[in-house]
Design goal:
- The radius of gyration is 19 Å and the shape is elongated.
- By secondary structure, the protein is an alpha+beta fold.
- It contains 5 helices and 7 strands, in the order ββββαββαααβα.
Length: 186
């Protein structure tokens, strides 16, 4: 049992993650700023059920504070609905960047986009400069669109006497690794 949560508020300079995984009687929790080295705490709880209970309690606390579920990277196994919503949000962000109009609609779309696609933005978020040009947005849209055209991994049916068929590996677009050059201006 595991979860990855994010809390994003570009105006308040928040771009945090919180992740937890239950293994046997242990609950491992990691947290920090998206794209930076995580802090880790291991709760040794003695049995699996106590670890699950602690997991659910901590997740409820984080969600009550405004954290939402996400993934550390976005790949073809991510819901098509999430990928399409991210593309829609970039379509809202695009004219704001073109016109340099960073009002409430832009901020709201940016915050929601960063919840779907956690992106390292540095220690100090300058929401005016997250996207420098429309070309930056177009590039991210291309990456997201490529996930929609990538087949989801297939589960091969194994029958007696037959080797399993090869399955397609899901295409992974980690904006953390792509961003080494893309986000350099921040």
């Amino acid at each position: 049992m595991e979860i990855y949560l994010v809390f994003v508020d570009a105006i308040q300079n928040s771009n945090k993650f919180w992740a937890a995984i239950v293994e046997d009687g242990n609950l491992t929790v990691q947290w920090g700023r998206v794209g930076y080295q995580a802090q880790t705490k291991i709760h040794t709880l003695g049995n699996h059920q106590r670890a699950i209970t602690k997991f659910h309690n901590l997740v409820a606390e984080k969600k009550a504070k405004g954290y939402s579920e996400s993934q550390p990277e976005i790949d073809a196994s991510r819901s098509v609905v999430d990928i399409r919503r991210a593309i829609q949000l970039l379509n809202i962000i695009r004219p704001a960047v073109a016109l340099q109009n960073f009002g409430d609609t832009y901020i709201s779309a940016l915050n929601e986009y960063l919840k779907i696609v956690p992106t390292p933005l540095g220690m100090q978020i300058d929401y005016h400069r997250v996207y420098r040009t429309v070309a930056d947005i177009d590039y991210q849209q291309e990456l997201l669109n490529s996930l929609l055209t990538t087949p989801a991994p297939q589960v091969a049916a194994v029958t007696v006497g037959h080797a399993p068929e090869a399955t397609a590996e899901p295409k992974v677009v980690s904006l953390k690794t792509i961003s080494k050059n893309f986000w350099r201006h921040l």
